[in-house]
Amino acid sequence: MRLKIIIAGLLTGLIAFAPMAAMADETETLRIILTGDHYVLPAKKGRGGFAKLATVVKQERAGAEHSIF
């Protein structure tokens, strides 16, 4: 009985992971853009500011085919 359960588990695993092996050649890159808590972004000393944040986000989105903001 145990042998049947083990064999059934192995076959189930092979069936479940077989499509993953076929798709292994096709890879995609996903870029996730995180900004954190930015309720205040003072534009001091050339750093910060919402305009700067928007520019960086636009650049990152343009550089990746698949991105999440």
Describe this structure in words.
It is a single chain. The chain is mainly alpha-helical. The protein has one domain (2-68). Helix content is 51%, strand content 9%. The chain has 2 helices and 2 strands. A two-stranded parallel ribbon has the order 1-2. Strand 1, helix 2 (50-63) and strand 2 (66-68) form a beta-alpha-beta unit. The longest helix is centred in the N-terminal third of the chain and has 21 residues, at 2-22. The radius of gyration is 23 Å and the shape is elongated. The model has no long low-confidence stretch (mean pLDDT 78).
Search tags:
69 residues, mainly alpha, two-stranded parallel sheet, 2 helices
Question: How would you summarize this macromolecular structure in one to three sentences?
Answer:
The chain is mainly α. The protein is built from 2 helices and 2 strands; from the N terminus they run αβαβ. A two-stranded parallel ribbon has the order 1-2.
Q: Please tell me the total number of domains.
A: 1
Strand adjacency order, main sheet = 1-2
How helix-rich are the residues, as a percent range? 40-55%
Radius of gyration: 23 Å
Outline the low-pLDDT stretches: none
- The number of E-state strands comes to 2
Mean pLDDT, rounded to whole units?
A: 78
Biggest sheet: strands, sense, closure?
Answer: 2 strands, parallel
